[in-house]
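Need residues for this backbone.
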């Protein structure tokens, strides 16, 4: 099929993502303006660091007084799922040029992953079209963030309201997860860990340490639950 047709089909598939990114990208840009980032800096961050949750976390953790190392570690931990997204598309990238595969895998996000996965399952979908879906999504996110910065420079956003956005992001991420024993354990332990860290005076790395506690606890529970009991082992033999 022609390049024009690929672009047209990709745009139709990406349109819901584009509209959604406009709605959340503008507030993200406003928050970035609150920590002194200008339009050029936010544009560069949106293009080079394509992570909506991370871009929300950075200004809010900065406003909360978190150290730079804690911000980097926390955002990296949250974004580890992106590697799994790209890896899951490896079978679709067999036999195509490495440059195309690299460009596609480098800009996969939660939303474009869902759309492209569905399209690949339906059939008659190519990596080039999937790449265009990612590009349309990235363009709308970047433009919305820049618009948010320009709007934020004209408005005075109370820092108390801005600081709550970080909590909102974690709540949104939590609500999108399946209700499983492991996820419930991770949430409870992470909340308890953050509270404990702040109670003993470790406010800076509290979020990072709490997240690590939650992940470790969920991993332990998952390992114990999957370990076969003595009766199951005997039956298997």
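Answer:
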């Amino acid at each position: 099929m022609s390049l024009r047709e690929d672009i047209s089909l990709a745009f139709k598939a990406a349109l819901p993502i584009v509209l959604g990114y406009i709605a959340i990208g503008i507030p993200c840009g406003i928050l970035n303006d609150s920590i002194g980032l200008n339009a050029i800096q936010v544009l560069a961050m949106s293009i080079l660091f394509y992570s909506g949750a991370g871009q929300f976390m950075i200004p809010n953790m900065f406003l909360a007084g978190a150290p730079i190392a804690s911000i980097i570690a926390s955002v990296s931990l949250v974004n580890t799922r992106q590697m799994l997204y790209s890896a899951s598309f490896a079978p679709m990238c067999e036999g195509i040029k490495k440059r195309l595969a690299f460009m596609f895998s480098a800009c996969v996000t939660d939303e474009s992953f869902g759309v492209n996965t569905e399209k690949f399952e339906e059939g008659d979908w190519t990596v080039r079209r999937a790449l265009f879906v990612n590009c349309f999504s990235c363009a709308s996110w970047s433009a919305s963030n820049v618009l948010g910065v320009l709007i934020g420079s004209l408005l005075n956003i109370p820092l108390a309201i801005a600081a709550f956005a970080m909590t909102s992001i974690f709540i949104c991420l939590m609500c999108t997860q399946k209700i499983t024993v492991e996820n419930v354990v991770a949430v409870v332990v992470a909340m308890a860990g953050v509270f404990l860290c702040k109670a003993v005076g470790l406010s800076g790395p509290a979020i990072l340490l709490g997240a690590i506690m939650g992940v470790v606890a969920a991993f332990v529970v998952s390992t114990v639950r999957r370990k076969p009991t003595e009766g199951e082992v005997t039956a298997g033999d």
